[in-house]
Amino acid sequence: MRIILLLLFCSCTEIFIPNNESYQSVHLNSSGWINIDNQNYSCDNGLRVFDNDFTFEVYFSGDNNQDNTAGTLFSLVGKQTENFIDSNCNGLLDENETDSNDDGILDDMLDDEFITLAIHNDPSVNNVLSFYVNDNEEEIIFEDVDFTDPDEFHLLQITSNGNNIKFYLDNSIVYSIEADIMIQGANLLIGANGNQNNMNNSWHGYIDEVRLWNGVLSDDYIDLHYESSNKLLETMQDSSICNLIGLWSFNYENETIQISDEKCTEASKLHYGVCDFDMCDYPLDGTLYTLPDSKVTFSKKAF
Question: I need a surface site. Which of 25, 112, 214, 279 has the fewest CB within 10 A?
Answer without folding.
Answer: 112
